[in-house]
């Protein structure tokens, strides 16, 4: 445990000296030196030169070795696959995106995913530990321990033992399968907009809506992994039927589904072909009041649903990610205003509502970060 504590401190505060590690952790200097020597021998830490003197001999400075190994992260979207190969600091060494149609079927989609993973592994540089594991984010409810996709309504998947299939192909590597919004929250916690917050909620808003909840620096999953499935709470009891079977779910009003429905109603079919993107729509909205109004409506519905999230978790921040975040203030601004207008207690209980820093890469980088947590830096050391 002390070694993990020292490694986490070096990663977060490098360059740092042995003396400063001892001062921060309360460990004695002999223990710190022994632990640092182990970490250097294990290639996770290296000495990086001489630091400034504070009165005695100038200290040797220590750095985290991000090139000790590589990580593979994959996002399985509703109609695309996005894979990255990163070092241990989530610097992307290789990436590739592929589109597919959900009608292609489960086996074909998993086959394409395996091809992408294999391509990433082939491109991994020579490092002491090689590819240290594979993380996969999926848009649905996941049993984390087994890596089984319990229910993914937008993919029409039920009880798919995804991790077991991948472990058969790569038995020597850890395989982690988790909900995509949870992994995006993990990515933001380690490397993005969530880095400065102990308590935040990441909202993934695209074709559907999901959330990743971080409390006390750690990802919260709930008893059975359902924590964060907020896209399916009802905001209109007389509303539209959702793909999950319920009526008036939030994701029917604050997602791409709502935007596409409103575009069709307004006769703007030119925005409904394969080239449709929220980013392009936001750009056009600068001179198109109709498009701006549709985005504003979506943002207001987003804000209505965010109130439930804020009341449930009372976070320091809500981070908006996924395709809707590409609209920037056209969506996030009205959401923020709606929260401010409706929230019970003003000011003190209002969290920061901000855009994702990692943007469309949040989930894939979070998938890589899940491997980092599993094999290098366990999450219980995240709050040092």
Automatic annotation (TrEMBL):
General function of this protein: Transcriptional repressor of xylose-utilizing enzymes.
Alphabetized Gene3D superfamilies for the sequence: 3.30.420.40, Winged helix-like DNA-binding domain superfamily/Winged helix DNA-binding domain
Any Pfam family: ROK
Keyword Cytoplasm carried by entry: no
Underlying gene: xylR
InterPro entries xrefs: ATPase_NBD, ROK, WH-like_DNA-bd_sf, WH_DNA-bd_sf
One BP term from GO: D-xylose metabolic process
Keywords, ordered alphabetically: Carbohydrate metabolism, Xylose metabolism
Superkingdom in the source lineage: Bacteria
Keyword Nucleotide-binding: no
Name the record gives this protein: Xylose repressor
UniProt family annotation: Belongs to the ROK (NagC/XylR) family.
């Amino acid at each position: 445990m002390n070694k993990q504590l020292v490694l986490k401190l070096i990663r977060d505060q490098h360059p740092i000296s042995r003396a400063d590690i001892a001062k921060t952790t309360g460990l004695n200097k002999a223990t710190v030196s022994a632990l640092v020597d182990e970490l250097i021998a294990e290639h996770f830490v290296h000495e990086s030169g001489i630091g400034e003197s504070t009165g005695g001999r100038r200290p040797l400075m220590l750095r985290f070795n991000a090139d000790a190994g590589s990580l593979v992260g994959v996002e399985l979207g509703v109609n695309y696959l996005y894979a990255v190969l990163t070092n241990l600091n989530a610097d992307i060494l290789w990436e590739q995106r592929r589109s597919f149609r959900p009608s292609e079927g489960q086996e074909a989609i998993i086959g394409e995913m395996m091809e992408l993973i294999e391509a990433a592994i082939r491109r991994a540089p020579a490092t002491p530990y090689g590819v240290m594991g594979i993380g996969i984010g999926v848009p649905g409810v996941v049993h984390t321990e087994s890596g089984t996709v319990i229910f993914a309504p937008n993919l029409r998947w039920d009880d798919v033992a995804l991790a077991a299939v991948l472990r058969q192909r790569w038995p020597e590597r850890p395989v982690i399968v988790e909900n995509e919004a949870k992994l995006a929250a993990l990515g933001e916690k380690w490397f993005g907009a969530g880095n400065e917050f102990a308590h935040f909620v990441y909202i993934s808003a695209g074709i559907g809506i999901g959330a990743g909840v971080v409390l006390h620096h750690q990802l919260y999953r709930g008893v059975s992994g359902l924590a964060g499935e907020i896209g399916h709470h009802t905001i209109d009891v007389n509303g539209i039927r959702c793909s999950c079977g319920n009526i008036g779910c939030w994701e029917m009003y604050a997602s791409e589904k709502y935007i596409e429905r409103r575009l069709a109603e307004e006769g703007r079919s030119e925005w409904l072909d394969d080239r449709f993107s929220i980013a392009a729509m936001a750009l056009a909205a600068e001179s198109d009041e109709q498009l701006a109004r549709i985005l504003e409506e979506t943002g207001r519905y987003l804000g209505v649903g965010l109130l439930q999230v804020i009341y449930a978790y009372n976070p320091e921040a809500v981070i908006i990610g996924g395709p809707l975040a590409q609209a920037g203030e056209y969506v996030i601004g009205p959401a923020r205003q709606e929260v401010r207008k409706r929230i019970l207690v003003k000011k003190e209980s209002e969290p920061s509502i901000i855009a994702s820093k990692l943007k469309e890469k949040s989930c894939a980088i979070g998938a890589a970060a899940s491997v980092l947590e599993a094999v290098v830096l366990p999450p219980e050391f995240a709050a040092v």
